[in-house]
Write a structure and sequence with these properties.
With 242 residues, the chain is α/β, with parallel strands linked by helices. It folds into two domains: 120 residues, Response regulator (Rossmann fold, 3-Layer(aba) Sandwich), CATH 3.40.50.2300; 112 residues, OB fold (Dihydrolipoamide Acetyltransferase, E2P). It is 29% helix and 35% strand. The chain is built from seven helices and 16 strands. The strands form four sheets. Strands 2-1-3-4-5 form a five-stranded parallel sheet. It has a five-stranded antiparallel sheet with strand order 11-10-9-13-12. The chain has a three-stranded antiparallel sheet with strand order 6-7-8, with no helix packed on it. The longest helix has 20 residues.
Length: 242
C-alpha cells in the first residue's frame, strides 16, 4: 500500500523539489499540493493523508500553528529555510525537520524514518482505524497469521490474559498479543469503560450492574475495587441505576 502524501509550501519551486525527490521512491503517492494552511486543511477533510511535507513560514498561518490545531494529523516532515523553528517542530512529534535547500541525501534519511515507522505499524498486533464523521471505526487484530477486521461497535468486552488480550464479540472471540492498556488508549473513551485491571467493557452492551459486577452479553464481569467509583459515576450518568 502506498503512502498517501501531501506537500504544503507557498513556494512552487520548493514543492517541485520535494515531489522530484519523492519520485525516486515507489512507496509514495502525491495526492495533493497546497500553497497554504487553509488549502491543506480543506484537502485533509476530503482525502486520507498518511504523510505531510509541511513548510513553516507561510502566509496566513505558520505550519507549526497549523499542525497544533489539527485533531488527527498525519505524520509530518517539516520543510523550512529557518532553523530556529526546529525545537517547535520536534515538540510537535514531527518525523523530521528538513532545512532548505533540501539535498537528496538528507531527504533520503527522512524517508528512511517513514519506512521504519510504517514497518513498526505493520508489525503491530493491533491497529485502530479512526472514524471520519459518522463512519464506523475498526480494530485490526493479528490473530495467528492473519489480520482480522473487527467493527468496534460489535465488541462486548476485552479481557487481559497476561501478555494477550481476548476481544469478545457476539459470535466470536479473538485472542491477540497485546497489553490491555494499549488497547484502552485506542478505544473511544465515551463508548468503553475500564472496570477492572483485566476488563474493558462496551457501555452500550451493559445490561445491568451491581456494586461489585457488571453483566454484559449474558456474562458477569467483576468491578475492581480501584475502578468502582469511576464505573458507578459513568454508568449513572449514562442512565443506569444501581
Amino acid at each position: 500500500m502506498k503512502t498517501r502524501t501531501l506537500i504544503v509550501d507557498d513556494e512552487p519551486h520548493a514543492i517541485e523539489v520535494v515531489e522530484n525527490h519523492l519520485q525516486k521512491f515507489s512507496q509514495f503517492e502525491v495526492v495533493g499540493k497546497c500553497r497554504d494552511a487553509m488549502q491543506a486543511f480543506q484537502l485533509l477533510q476530503q482525502k486520507n493523508i498518511d504523510l505531510m511535507f509541511l513548510d513553516i513560514k507561510m502566509p496566513g498561518m505558520l505550519g507549526t500553528d497549523f499542525l497544533k490545531n489539527l485533531k488527527n494529523p498525519p505524520k509530518v516532515i517539516f520543510t523550512t529555510a529557518y532553523s530556529e523553528y526546529a525545537i517547535d517542530g520536534f515538540e510537535l512529534n514531527a518525523v523530521d525537520y528538513l532545512l532548505k535547500p533540501i539535498s537528496f541525501e538528507r531527504f533520503f534519511r527522512a524517508v528512511d524514518k517513514i519506512y521504519r515507522l510504517n514497518e513498526q505499524k505493520s508489525n503491530a498486533a493491533i491497529s485502530y482505524e479512526s472514524p471520519v464523521g459518522d463512519r464506523e471505526s475498526f480494530l485490526y487484530l493479528k490473530v495467528e497469521r492473519k489480520t482480522i477486521k473487527v467493527n468496534v461497535n460489535d465488541i462486548l468486552w476485552i479481557e487481559s490474559q497476561r501478555d494477550y488480550v481476548k476481544v469478545v464479540i457476539k459470535d466470536n472471540v479473538y485472542i491477540t498479543k497485546q497489553k490491555i492498556s494499549i488497547l484502552e488508549e485506542m478505544l473511544p473513551e465515551r463508548n468503553f469503560i475500564r472496570i477492572h485491571r483485566s476488563f474493558i467493557v462496551a457501555v452500550s452492551k451493559i445490561t445491568s450492574f451491581y456494586s461489585y459486577s457488571i453483566e454484559v452479553g449474558g456474562h458477569e464481569l467483576p468491578i475492581g475495587r480501584n475502578y468502582k467509583q469511576e464505573v458507578q459515576k459513568k454508568l449513572k450518568t449514562d442512565g443506569f441505576a444501581a
